[in-house]
Amino acid sequence: MAVTVALMGALVLVPISFIIYGSFMSDSPTAPHSTFTFENWRLVYTTSEYLQPLSNTLQIAALVTLLSVVFGTFMAWI
User: DSSP for 46-67?
Assistant: First the structure.
């Protein structure tokens, strides 16, 4: 059981870690002259081109969470 959990954790956490690491790099994370930067994050949170999709994503996530809690609570009573 522990081996399965460790394997699944590695298969999930390693790619997510690489994506997060890459989001802080100025170029591809494997590029030789890539530097650490917050520019990519600043761009997403300050450019209107990205703010609308981000807002839509957060609204959908909140709605799905609310519906899941309500439905799950109702189903728990049955």
Answer: H-HHHHHHHHHHHHHHHHHHHH
Q: Give me the pLDDT at residue 31, please.
A: 85
**Tokens 């300050």 found at:** 46
For the chain, helix, strand, coil in percent to 5 are 75, 5, 20
The 3-state DSSP class for residue 70 equals helix
- Nearest Cα residue to 39 out of 59, 22, 53, 25: 25
pTM to 2 decimals? 0.66
CA-based R_g, the chain, Å? 19
Q: Which amino acid is at 68?
A: S
